[in-house]
């Protein structure tokens, strides 16, 4: 559904991304992980239309596209939920869902917006009792739910989630991860940026590792170990897997010694 090839982006002399590839299929959750400065935020902003790439190609639904602005990207079918959520805490749930996208903006159709709001929240099995509650009164998980529901307004095909469980408690994290699974069940492609390996292993189908702005491995989340992922993130050879491979190689070498 979404395919990136050779994406590069520099800011002055600093190469934030260098020849990055990424594929996201329909109904698939791809976690993008990496250390601070690995290029995750830049990748999200490229996909969101904030930063145009310097080089490389992007295909969406089988055709090459240019991601030139957030508005154009959203109209194309790619929605982004940034880490700060961009919610207005003094407004209620319904107002936040439709802020800037009001139905009949010169004569607000309050009934239609309320109906659509409940439809979106029910799709996510959201635990929000009323639309009239100010966002400031919601929990972290509920706020994330509102932000994700808002991203569904344009019926996107792909959703980018930037650190969706950051600073959340255990119960709120579980609530958000359930939302991610529901997005996958709806057939959406999901790109999830995360530092939390437990969250990644819980919902991701594949794990793409970035290191120093480059690809450093794509793994099947069902079979890869946390140690393998961390080794790819840090570039460390001093891990259990590498040590075992080294011992096996040494034994093979000694066994083939003609002496």
Spatial strand arrangement across the major sheet = 6-7-8-3-9-10
Q: Tally the helices: what do you get?
A: 9
Second CATH tier, the architecture: 3-Layer(aba) Sandwich
According to CATH, what is the topology?
A: Rossmann fold
Number of DSSP-assigned strands: 10
Q: Structurally, how many domains make up the residues?
A: 1
Q: Under the CATH scheme, which class?
A: Alpha Beta
- Per the principal axes of the C-alpha atoms, what is the gross shape? globular
CATH-level-4 superfamily name: P-loop containing nucleotide triphosphate hydrolases
Averaged pLDDT: 87
Order of helices and strands: EEEHEEHEHHHEHEHEEHH
> Into which percentage range does the β-strand content fall?
15-25%
Gyration radius (Cα, Å) is 21 Å
Which structural class should the secondary elements be placed in?
alpha/beta
End-to-end separation in angstroms reads: 57 Å
Low-confidence stretches: none
Specify the biggest β-sheet: 6 strands, mixed
Percentage of residues in helical conformation: 25-40%
């Amino acid at each position: 559904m979404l395919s990136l090839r050779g994406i590069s982006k520099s800011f002055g002399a600093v190469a934030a991304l260098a020849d990055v590839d990424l594929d996201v299929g329909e109904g698939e959750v791809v976690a993008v992980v990496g250390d601070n400065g690995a290029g995750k935020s830049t990748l999200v902003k490229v996909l969101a239309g904030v930063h145009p790439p310097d080089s490389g190609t992007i295909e969406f639904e089988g055709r090459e596209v240019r991601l030139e602005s957030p508005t154009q990207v959203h109209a194309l079918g790619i929605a982004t939920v940034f880490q700060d959520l961009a919610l207005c805490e003094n407004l209620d749930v319904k107002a936040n869902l439709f802020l800037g996208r009001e139905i009949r903006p010169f004569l607000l159709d309050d009934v239609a917006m309320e109906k659509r709001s409940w439809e979106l929240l029910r799709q996510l099995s959201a635990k929000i009792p009323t639309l009239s509650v100010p966002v400031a009164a919601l929990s972290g998980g509920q706020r994330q739910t509102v932000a994700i529901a808002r991203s569904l307004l344009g019926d996107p095909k792909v959703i980018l989630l930037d650190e969706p469980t950051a600073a959340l408690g255990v119960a709120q994290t579980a609530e958000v991860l359930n939302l991610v699974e529901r997005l996958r069940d709806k057939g959406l492609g999901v790109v999830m940026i995360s530092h939390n390996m437990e969250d990644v292993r819980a919902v991701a189908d594949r794990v793409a590792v970035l290191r120093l702005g480059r690809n450093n491995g794509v793994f099947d989340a069902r079979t890869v170990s946390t140690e393998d992922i961390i080794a790819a993130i840090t570039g460390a050879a001093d891990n259990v897997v590498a040590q075992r491979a080294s011992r096996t190689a040494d034994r093979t070498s000694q066994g083939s010694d003609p002496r």
